[in-house]
Every structure is written in C-alpha cells, then in structure tokens.
Amino acid sequence: MNAELNKKRILLVEDDQNLGLLLQEYLVHKGFDVVLRRDGEEGLFTYKKEPFNMVILDIMMPKMDGFTVAENIRHEDSEIPIIFLSAKSLKEDKIRGLTIGADDYITKPFSMEVLELKINAILKRTEKKEIEPALDEYLAGHTKLDYKNQRLILGSEEIRLTTKENELLRLFFERKNNILEREIALMHVWQDDSYFTARSMDVFISKLRKYLKPDTSLTIVNVHGVGYKLIENL
After folding, report:
1. Residue 5: what pLDDT?
2. What structural domains and CATH numbers belong to the chain?
3. CB 46 within 8 A of CB 4
C-alpha cells in the first residue's frame, strides 16, 4: 500500500505559533499531511485553493475568528469535518460551534493523543468509500456511457470499453464536477492501491482523456495529491 496515496490532508489554523508547530509536527509524525496557517483569513484563503480532508480551527484569531471561518466553509461544503480547538470553555461557545456544523469542540489544554483519536474516528465515520449502485446509463456533457453494455457513445461515434475502462468511466460520470479520490478508484477497479497499480491507472486515465477529447465540454483534470475530476462545462 502506498502511504503517500493514503495520507489525509488537514488544514490547521492556529495563531499560537508554538502550539501550531507542535501540533503540526505531531500529526505529521502520525502520518497526516498538515498545512499550518496563522490567522483566519489565511486559513480560509488556503481552504479555497487546496483540497483537504479535515479542518482544525482555533477560535480566537486575528483578522477572522474561527467561527467565521467555519461558517464560510460550511457555505461551500456541508460535509468536510471541522474540529474547533479553543480556550473558550463556555457552554454557549460550544453550542455555537456545534450549531455551525463542527464535528467536535475541544477545549485547551488537551491531549494530542486524544486529538489524534478524535481525528481518526471522525475521518472513519465521514469518509464516503462506498460506491453507488450502478445505473444502466450515465450522461456527462454530450457523451453517454452505456454502462450495461460497456459502450461510450458520442454522437454517431461508439467506443467499446474494457471492463476496467467501463468501471473507471462510471466513477467519473457519477462524480462529474467532484473529486474522484485515487484510493477509491484504485480499490474499486483494481482492488489494490499499490504504487504499480497507481501507475497503471495513470495509463488508463490517459486513454479515457483520448476517448473524451471529441466532447469539448468534458475535461479530466488532475487534483494534486488527491485524485482526479471530470469537469463538465456546458
């Protein structure tokens, strides 16, 4: 199993420099990819530019507080896990944080081991590894995937697909305009996520790009460090 493919990306927004660096170092040691930002504005800007599996927010920060950052994130993504870290232990603050949509609210000081356990538990609960039941047909752009009969149809052109091409295209069509994580694709289509299988999938992705090239409304793009996305631009 390729550890790099399985690393979860965490955005940590903490204005206490010492605590932020300690947390980042600890979580990186535990196998996470952690991006550290010092204030709410920087954190929100980074969130909008890069993909993450989880956001950890301090509340009392310069420029923009953690509650405001979380509210902005929730306007764009109702599902990404959010954990608040805060010296504010009032019940009203906890209620506000959870009402915004946080998955947990941890008061300082706290145990890093407990934080790690909470992170893993939340990620395990919220990850969507399951594949939806297959449909007979899928549509994206001006292209139809006849999944049942393993055909890709664009106008009068028809391409017969191998089983793996058919399965991979199904995942792209199901998730059009959303990220298809490499790990999900590898485990569903190949039942393996080793380095060599990942390289094999890259070859398949190149073939799918060629198949879809006549449909200018569809583009498969790389999402660095995470996977791919089929963009539909009608």
Report:
1. 45
2. 3-126 (3.40.50.2300), 137-232 (1.10.10.10)
3. no
